[in-house]
Amino acid sequence: MKRSAWPPRAVTVLRRGAAVAAALLAILPVTAAPATAAGTAPTRDEIYREIGVADQPVDYVILVDTSGSMAAKGRYSTVRSTLRTFLDGLSPADHVALVTFDDRPEERYIGSAGDAAKIVSRLPAKPDPTGGTDIGAALDRALRELERTDAADIASVVLLTDGKHDPPRGSDYPKSSGTSWDKLRKRAEALGERTELVGYALPLGSGATGANLLGKVVEDAVVLRPDGIQDLGAYLERAGDSTRARSAAQLLATDRRKGVTVSWTDTGVRDLTDGSATASVTFRSATRHVPLTVSGVRISADGVPVDVTGMPGRLTLKPGESRAYTVRLDGGPRAGGLPYRRTEDGEAALRVSGEVSAPWQRALAPEVDLKTPDEVGVTGDPLQVRAQVGSAYFLPTVFSALAAALVLGWLWWRSVNRPRLQGVLTAVPVFGEEIPDRIALSGRRVGFRPRGGGQGTVHGRRRRTADGPRVDLLIRYTPGGASGRPDQVICGPGGQVVLGGLSFTHLPQESASGPAPGSGTDAAVPGGGRP
Question: Please, is 468 exposed, middle or buried when counting C-beta atoms within 10 Å of its C-beta (0-12, 13-18, 19+)?
Answer without folding.
Answer: exposed
